[in-house]
Inverse folding.
């Protein structure tokens, strides 16, 4: 049985829930069992936001993640809060243009990506989340980059068609980062 | 032999349970006569309140439902939104409509819900034995205002027609009385208009009927009708408070 | 096969209701179920249905009462504090024997409580809530797929027995997205000769009413209604059993708690502990049969709940107190972790109850 538990955390407005949705749809497309659980309530408007995504080849039990295999941290408080919950051998993705602390664990793989800066340079600052997700796809061959466009197509409303290309651009930047 | 007077078809044969001298019987009859004249008995659906008229479902011959206290306009909304082709009316007293059900009253009026509301205002809670109503007059003695309604302590009566007429929503708001023959005839005209408005799809029409409660007012029926004239009507003047179509026709 | 799509639990309820033939929705906003109203507001006008935002929960349940009396499949949804307001209407709907579907996406209480997931309306849902002798069919979905399937089932049961079906969900199941498949099925329809349609002057008038001033009549109404409830208790309990065949510890949990518990059961099994799970799907009628059968073979029950243990007494009754019932719970919007449940299982295994 293979199950990947992904916790994405940051500020409201950073597209935390959106990137979770992207991963959930990608999983759906790969015929995975999937669950997507957002934090909800007033904190969604500007406070902290997080999102639990589980991809599995067997039915998902609890959709609530207490020990993530993958943590995406989009701000310092989120990294501090969840760094120790990641399972040994897990992965941590850090937006290093917003977070200046380092992960002091040796039993996990840490990827520092200056995602917000990279996105800003291209004039797409709000898509830093997708830069990180692009890098995650690169590290998770089981999700593959194939069909990504179709998923973006599904998630971006028709009225905002221009955003599709920009999302693809952000994903590509993340995928080729450090190559 | 020629029939000169008979019971409206829209009333059943069930004998009214109302007290001697209670005008509910008159008002039921007016509503039933109007239904007969408009030929709507077969498509009318009535909503009974909680209060003296709670058993109105036994008296009107059309389909009937009994609503929780004050909620008749919400129940009527549910029915009308499902069956716009039917004619839906509520029959409510002052405690039901103007106290516990005020929110339902105001909001169904604001939505211009296409229903007809018959509002019987007799300034007292009848069924529970004569307590102060939202429409009891200043100084009026009731079981729960034994020294007379003290407005400093428990506030002022609510003039429902005047208040609802301030809303954009409703089509027609009128106050009538049933204390003499002339007023009864005019009351019927207003009730008929309130039903005709619904049939024409014009929207929320409410007729406030100033009535009497001889039993709980502690008066003879005759004295009660006089008290309507001398005390109730000066506070609750008869009149049409809103008539959107008439205004548009001007 | 129909397409697998991702959907939020709340949206799945709304879509399933529409597929079940519901064309009338009356509601009032409250977190965490507002997606249901939003979905209905968007869809209903396009399919000739009615979405109406009422002035209060009280008004909305009474609109449901009226619409149901008029013979329609109709629903409302809310969350805990809003359901408290609706209980007046629920009692009238029970007393008038008309069908309704009511959704409670629970949040923490009492009072205004919180907005995080909870199961603390178990008593309110299964023991009455409103006044008088009455029952509601209570369905507890544990997945987005079940949010849909139990909504359809709920409408059918409500129409079949002329009473309220309540979907007792929680904020987690309401807010989460999972893959879901909608099969193309025609909604079932039921004869409603009692409905208010207008007499057309062709039949005696129909009366929908809960008032019986003669106690003999009211008593008979209640006796008759309880005959109906007895039939439901015999025919409608639903539950899922997981690894119960050889279990000597039985975890009982519904809704989101059952999913957490399942994780713990899997881990405990890998440690060699013989533990299984019974998941009630109907909370009323409570699945007495499997609990009663388990009572003869397990050494203890563990009730996992997001409340202070409201289901414990139903497990005790169903098991006739033959075995101890432990409680593993969080409340106020907190959710037990699989580890907490695992710890309870280990404790029972070691015998230090």
């Amino acid at each position: 049985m293979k199950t990947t538990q992904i916790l994405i955390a940051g500020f409201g407005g950073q597209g935390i829930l959106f990137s979770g949705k992207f991963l959930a749809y990608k999983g759906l497309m790969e015929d995975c069992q999937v669950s997507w659980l957002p934090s909800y309530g007033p904190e969604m408007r500007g406070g902290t936001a997080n999102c639990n995504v589980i991809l599995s080849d067997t039915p998902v039990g609890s959709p609530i993640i207490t020990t993530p295999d993958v943590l995406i941290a989009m701000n310092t408080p989120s990294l501090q809060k969840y760094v120790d919950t990641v399972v040994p051998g897990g992965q941590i993705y850090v937006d290093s243009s917003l977070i200046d602390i380092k992960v002091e664990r040796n039993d996990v793989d840490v990827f520092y990506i200056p995602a917000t800066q990279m996105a800003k340079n291209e004039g797409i600052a709000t898509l830093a989340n997708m830069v990180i997700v692009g890098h995650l796809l690169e590290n998770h061959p089981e999700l593959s980059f194939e069909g990504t466009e179709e998923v973006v197509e599904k998630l971006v409303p028709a009225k905002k068609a221009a955003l599709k290309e920009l999302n693809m651009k952000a994903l590509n930047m993340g995928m080729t980062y450090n190559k | 032999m020629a029939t000169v007077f008979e019971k409206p078809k829209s009333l059943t044969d069930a004998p009214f349970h109302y007290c001697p001298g209670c005008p509910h019987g008159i008002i039921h009859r007016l509503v039933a006569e109007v239904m007969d004249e408009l030929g709507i008995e077969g498509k009318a659906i009535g909503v009974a309140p909680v209060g003296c008229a709670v058993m109105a479902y036994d008296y009107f011959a059309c389909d009937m439902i009994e609503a929780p206290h004050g909620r008749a306009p919400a129940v009527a909304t549910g029915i009308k939104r499902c069956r716009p082709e039917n004619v839906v009316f509520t029959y409510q007293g002052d405690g039901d409509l103007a106290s516990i059900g005020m929110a339902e009253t105001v909001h169904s009026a604001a939505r211009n819900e296409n229903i007809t509301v018959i509002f019987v205002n007799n300034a007292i809670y009848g069924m529970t034995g004569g307590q102060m109503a939202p429409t009891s007059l200043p100084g009026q003695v009731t079981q729960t205002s034994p020294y007379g309604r003290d407005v400093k302590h428990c506030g002022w009566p609510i003039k429902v027609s005047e208040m609802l007429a301030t809303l954009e929503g409703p089509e027609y708001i009128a106050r009538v009385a049933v204390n003499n023959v002339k007023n009864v005839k005019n009351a019927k005209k207003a009730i008929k208009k309130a039903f005709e408005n619904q049939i024409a799809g014009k929207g929320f029409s409410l007729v406030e009927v100033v009535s009497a409660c001889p039993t709980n007012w502690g008066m003879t029926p005759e004295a009660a009708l006089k008290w309507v004239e001398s005390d109730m009507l000066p506070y609750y003047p008869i009149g049409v408070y809103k008539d959107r179509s008439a205004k548009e026709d001007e | 096969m129909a397409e697998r799509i991702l959907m939020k639990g709340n949206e799945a309820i709304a879509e399933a209701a529409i597929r079940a033939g519901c064309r009338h929705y009356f509601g009032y906003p409250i977190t965490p179920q507002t997606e249901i109203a939003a979905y209905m507001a968007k869809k209903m006008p396009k399919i000739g249905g009615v979405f109406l935002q009422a002035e209060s929960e009280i008004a909305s349940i009474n609109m449901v009462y009226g619409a149901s009396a008029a013979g329609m499949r109709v629903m409302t949804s809310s969350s805990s504090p809003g359901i408290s307001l609706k209980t007046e209407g629920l009692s009238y709907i029970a007393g008038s024997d008309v069908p309704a579907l009511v959704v409670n996406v629970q949040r923490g209480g009492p009072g205004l409580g919180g907005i995080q997931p909870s199961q603390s309306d178990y008593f309110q849902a299964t023991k009455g809530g409103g006044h008088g002798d009455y029952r509601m069919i209570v369905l507890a979905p544990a997945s987005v797929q079940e949010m849909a399937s139990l909504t359809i089932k709920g409408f059918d049961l409500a129409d079949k027995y002329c009473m309220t079906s309540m979907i007792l969900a929680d904020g987690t199941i309401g807010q989460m997205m999972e893959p879901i498949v909608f099969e193309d099925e025609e909604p079932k329809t039921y004869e409603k000769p009692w409905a208010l349609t207008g007499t057309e002057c062709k039949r005696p008038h129909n009366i929908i009413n809960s008032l019986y001033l003669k106690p003999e009549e009211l008593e008979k109404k209640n006796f008759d209604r309880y005959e109906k409830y007895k039939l439901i208790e015999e025919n409608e309990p639903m539950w899922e059993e997981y690894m119960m065949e050889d279990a000597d510890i039985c975890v009982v949990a519904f809704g989101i708690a059952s999913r957490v518990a399942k994780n713990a059961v899997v881990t405990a099994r890998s440690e060699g502990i013989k533990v299984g799970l019974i998941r009630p799907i109907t909370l009323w009628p409570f699945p007495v049969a499997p609990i009663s059968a388990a009572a003869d073979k397990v050494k203890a029950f563990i009730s996992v709940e997001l409340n202070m243990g409201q289901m414990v007494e139903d497990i005790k009754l169903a098991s006739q107190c033959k075995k101890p019932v432990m409680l593993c719970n969080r409340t106020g919007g907190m959710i037990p972790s699989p580890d907490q449940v695992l710890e309870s299982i280990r404790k029972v295994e070691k015998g230090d109850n």
